[in-house]
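A sample follows:
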Amino acid sequence: MKEIIEFDKLPYDRKIMFTTKDYHVKSQILWGGICIKGDIPNDTVLFRKFIDLIKFINGKDCKKRQRYAGKRLKKLNKA
């Protein structure tokens, strides 16, 4: 958790991290895709479901499907 908060405080406007848990930090993108024991796979296709990289590069709101990802992760964490 300490590293997540430190990363979020870095002095850069555009930074992201994919997480499988909601840490309530600005730079997180909730990953609602398939993962094993909280590990996010190295995936070059599915990440597009959760972030629009063009909007990210242009400094616009880029997060997508975060409510869906949050609900899905809650279900997975209960199992």
